[in-house]
Amino acid sequence: MSADRRLGIATVCLSGTLEDKLAAAAAAGFDGVELFENDLVASPWSPERVRGACADLGLTIDLYQPFRDFEAVPPDVLARNLRRAELKFDVMRRLGADTVLVCSSVSPDTVDDDELAAEQLHALAARAAEHGIRVAYEALAWGRFVNTYDRSWRIVRAADHPALGVCLDSFHVLSRDVDPVAIRTIPGEKVFFLQLADAPRLRMDVLQWSRHHRLFPGQGAFDLRGFVGHVLATGYSGPLSLEVFNDVFRQSEPRAAAVDAMRSLLLLQEAPDTALPLAGHAFTELDVDDVTAPRVEAALTGLGFAPSGRHRTKPVRLWRQGEARIVLNHRDPSGGGRVAVSAVAVAGADPAGSAERAEAFLAAPVGSAAVAAPDGTSVIFCRDDLGWLADFTAEEVGEDSGAGLLDTDHVGLTEPFDRFDQAALFYRAVLGLEPDDVAEFAAPFGLVRSRPVVDRARHVRIALDSALVRRGTWGPDVREPQHVAFRSADALASARRMRELGAPLLDIPANYYDDLDARLALPPELLADLRELSVLYDRDEHGEFLHFFTEVLGDRVFFEVVQRVGGYAGYGAVNAPVTMAAHRGRRLAGR
Amino acid sequence: MSADRRLGIATVCLSGTLEDKLAAAAAAGFDGVELFENDLVASPWSPERVRGACADLGLTIDLYQPFRDFEAVPPDVLARNLRRAELKFDVMRRLGADTVLVCSSVSPDTVDDDELAAEQLHALAARAAEHGIRVAYEALAWGRFVNTYDRSWRIVRAADHPALGVCLDSFHVLSRDVDPVAIRTIPGEKVFFLQLADAPRLRMDVLQWSRHHRLFPGQGAFDLRGFVGHVLATGYSGPLSLEVFNDVFRQSEPRAAAVDAMRSLLLLQEAPDTALPLAGHAFTELDVDDVTAPRVEAALTGLGFAPSGRHRTKPVRLWRQGEARIVLNHRDPSGGGRVAVSAVAVAGADPAGSAERAEAFLAAPVGSAAVAAPDGTSVIFCRDDLGWLADFTAEEVGEDSGAGLLDTDHVGLTEPFDRFDQAALFYRAVLGLEPDDVAEFAAPFGLVRSRPVVDRARHVRIALDSALVRRGTWGPDVREPQHVAFRSADALASARRMRELGAPLLDIPANYYDDLDARLALPPELLADLRELSVLYDRDEHGEFLHFFTEVLGDRVFFEVVQRVGGYAGYGAVNAPVTMAAHRGRRLAGR
User: Fold this and answer.
1) Where, by residue number, does a divalent metal cation bind (chains A, B) (predicted)?
2) Phi, psi (deg, nearest 5) at residue B205
């Protein structure tokens, strides 16, 4: 795809007044907007002022939308609809917009007659042409009779008017079981507009699915790359324009949402697999303060870590065990008893190149070879030769404690519900990580959605969680928890050794093991060990998973130790409600 | 129905740890619980301790649930399932629970063979009986083969074991197109358990519908009264027990949710139409402070109200026009520039009786003949002979300003998203109001859900709104807005007179009228008047609606004037996004 292609966004994608939306679209670098009629109707700005504001912001109005329920109607209804259209053409003249979207009818007035639809759309196009306006006819997936793109195209072809073409919307095409390949048979000059939206695969009423659950490309399950390929193959030369109805975006801060939208289009235009390969997690940085530093250091010691370096210029200390590394940053000594993951550092062959790519995807740089994730966490790119260790003075390190940690398995971050899809897209674009399937589970305090992102080689994993509906004052004491998970080759041995070393490990209720026995009938010796050591267990068709946790240190951070046996690629989500309840129990007991 | 029937609630209805849930259920007056297995598994309490805690709280454990994927399987799977069941029977013995829920299988192991299912369920029941346990077999609406109650009953009948009966769940029955009347053919002693849940009518995957969108009885669209009638006709003597999976309740404060749950069962057991009739809105009380009182008084004056009395003992003043009355309460002079609806007063023939009914529905009394709504607003019951005016000294009142207000049409209250369904149920129970259909619309800052509640005679209307997904710092300046709407016989004349009187009326954008013209082709004179006076318009098959608004006074309250022509029963929801944007525009301009 050409990077020169114009990029657009429908105002309905963004929250706020029309003024807010236009400013956000311009700030994110969009070339044009689809102006959603309701946004204009509710605006105190005249069409002329909207036109001027767009011009000042460098935005064109690529589409006025939508015009509904026009075609295949009795003559009296046609007369009313043509009057309505003429009034809208006048608004478009004042706006300086030259393409109007006409959706296939859902009206009880419409009849199942493609010839009549073509004849009436021809009449509409003739009127439009007098105003220099083009009509883009779109098959809604829930159109009363016209609900597939091929049928809308047959009608447009039959109408045969130069001011009439089709609008192709990825949602309306891909939500139905119609092969999109026939798009290639449409001449490019008859594709008047292209609207893009991704979506999760949901089994529900298609109208509700469309109105509430669309996503930006790369956030859902649709093959948008293939879809856009078909459309561009026609010779379509118009913009790639997003039309995303989403309950969360409707109320999200519009500037951040617009950046996210732009990032999705940049990613869509990139060739697959161009992200630079990653070697693994280099380190995870935690911010600690005078209250929490001793607790975290004691926990790390209990897990078998040893201090192994001090930063030459910053109040930062490196802890290490095998290839697992934690950096404690003491930047705010009076932090109020908090611990937080402040940076995720990944190793690769070309940190500068990775940072450049990240910035090309609109990530804000923070220092050299580091960018800010949407939640404020830094992503740091390190060379995989450990050259960055030169920033640290080596410390005398005692003997290995024998706790058996190998490296970092994953970092777990909890995102606010309205940044969850953004976060997944950010890591996808910036690090080239691929999202795994979404998991949802009922935690003790509400529904949690989980979507890990992982690189192809499974060297870097970030587990993103979000509480979907969060009450205010009542709730878990641990808000937006974060964790770092280390890999062990033998979780039971690690747990045993860590208990000897005094690690603050989380106790798991006996009821969990009784249920595990009932569910999985594990060998009695294994079950006894798991129970004794408070190690949790899961298995699937690929392998087994053993994992255990520390208590929460400070207000939100804990550590996890995992052992993957065979090809188990998950994160033990089945156990999450149990560990969440246990974490809360410990916090209450500790009061 | 008998008020002596035992009432129960599944722990899965409530948020928190098992300890939180049991405490909330007991505090709301439930007799028993269905213990959801995951709640036990995540609990640090042993089964014996749970049993003791329930006994201490006066709760029985009426059902242990769920046991899944048992029946109609190959022999090796049956052996595993029986082992699993024996382990659960042991947990039940420790809990002191004597009934287990077995859901119809969704497993790939199960086959379509009712005879085999009956044979294996017989074997399970025989094992259960040895432990004094009964098995309640339930057809899940998405069971692989057994997914209707009549089929589950045929299997139970064929199995013919005294320890095997059916569990009837209103969701699983009413979500499918199977007539529930055949429930009456089941002998009552074979109905082992009755689970109740309401739900909105949704067109979506039934499993997702069930897991996320169930509601307490009276909050949804199901005919639960009819359903329970069928079940009780069998002679069923067990508890009425709620099993409601709901994303919002999963994270709501559990004590309030449990009260709501109990209120729903009390309402379900009440005979229809027993609420005392209401004569109308007596008055609406607003809390004002030193900053806002002058603004509100000026607005009322501009709307043609006149001061007409001072309370004999409180810093309260009455404003009146026709039968429309506003009481301004100056209880907190240094309130920080706030205005809020503090009380909705309704008139009726028997205020004491209405208050008694409200308290029977668990409404907290506040003073005499007044109760607190879930959002803290008071509901005051007044005698319809205006005897309450004796609390006020009459003020000299000038001439009628001729603004034409007749009375109060409705009060609009915005509820937090997690109190919305509670609020509707509260007014339904306490005032006998019936909910209208839910409307949802895309407001400038996110989705808004609206559900008016109204009495049969349409004398008292409360319009409940809720922002479904609300972002934090970014958003409208008006948080949880409230309004009082007055009725006029001629909205255009009222608007004209109020503009002369200097009322702070809200201006509506010209674009709105251009669109109204395009949509409805109103007579040009009417359109010109509406446009000139910033009056909004709607119509439906029953009649017409004209309405206009004041600006927001203080932080959240505004007034509305409405004219209903013919049988129009709505609230002009189609115009709400426009007025919300206009209200924001005024607030921004006023900065």
Assistant:
1) 138, 169, 195, 243
2) -50, 125
